[in-house]
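Final report, closing paragraph on structural work. Over the funding period we assembled a curated collection of sequence-structure pairs, and we close with a single example.
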Amino acid sequence: MILPTPVIIVIHQARSAADYASVLEKTGAKVHPVASFEEANELLSFVHPDLVLLAASMPEGDGRLYCQQIRATLVHPRPVLVLLHSSDDVNERIRSFRYGADDVLGDPIDKNELAIRVLAHLRRRQEELSNQLTQLPGPNMIRRMLEQCLVSDKTWSALSVDLNNLRIYNETYGDLAGDQLIKALGAILMGLTGDNDFVGHVEADDFLMITQPERRDEVAEAICQQFTTVSKRFYPPDDIERGYLVATGHGGIRRRVPLISLSIGIVSSTSRRFQSYVDVLTTSRDFRYAAKQRPGSRWLGDHAQVLGTAGSETQRARILVVEPDGAMACLLQENLSLEGYLVQVTSSAGDALSIARDSPHPDLILLESNLADRRMDGWELCRALKEDKELKTIWVVMATSHPDQLLALESGADLYLPKPFDMNSLLSEVKHLLRSRLRIPDLL
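Its predicted structure, as stored:
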């Protein structure tokens, strides 16, 4: 795996700055030699160095005071400050540490010793900027890597990788179990990383991988397949057999949540020109969010065709209310209509099934379990909807006073709504289910 090239600024009198720079360039770092604090200030305005090597004595002032200035003005992550001091007096060197230097070396210094000490500081800095859980490069190193990609003449692809439903997993099994799952994903990414690839851990369950465009699809598919296999080891057999977890929301609202999966968004330098590293991150996340709209582990890239948006502002979502209580049916119809939805109401399971089969199908059905229809109750209607190939994608919200909340979910309902329920909670959950989705090509 490759890492971002370290950046070093050397502040010394011209000849010495050039000499030290030539030594440090052999360590693989990008070195900027400058001969004054003024030049250094200009450079620090757009360069984010990993290490600053500066002389304690400069014609224009005290290098120790400049250490104080850097500490006071540069935000995290601050560069390592190494002071070159010509004095052999121990007290003088100690005072240099008090001014803010991270290390004090002799001036002049043996070239080999200088290179080894600088490499040790850079190694330590890399460890500090790595994620503590996975030990992969963290956000600052990711930013540096993307910035170097943006100015490179080589082509590249960035894969934004994220786990789906981790919060529910953590609530069910605990944060420690979730951490192990994140570490497993990190290990999968590292196992698929080539010599010229990069993997970083942005935060929580958010990762970024950089590879060559010709490898992007192969790597993304391998990540999905390997994670699908490995993730099953993190569930009890009963939960794997059931195929979902139960999430509890405000007011006792329960919903079925699929087992954990991952989504990958891919962007490439061959598809568009990016303005900044933030542009890369946000665009790749947009494609990742689109990939989340399909079940299971999925990937989507800017090289694949994205179809039109379903549920756009010009389309009004259709809701079917199946409620035997006339007063409650009117209340639901009024509140849902005020939210902008097209609402139909029925009290019969048979009529509801017939309406659902008509085109266009409802986007969501709000269903009471206890129906007056002798032929079919709410539970049976829910099963019939979910077993129908054309209708199974319709959201079903089961509203019931039945004490067994799992019965609704096991019948196929996407959401359990205990009666009596808060109307605002209902509207919030309906909005959540009906939010706009990107349609993703079937070839993925």
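Confidence is low (pLDDT under 50) at residues 305-314, 436-444. Residues 7-128 form a domain with the Rossmann fold fold (CATH 3.40.50.2300). We thank the funder for supporting this effort.
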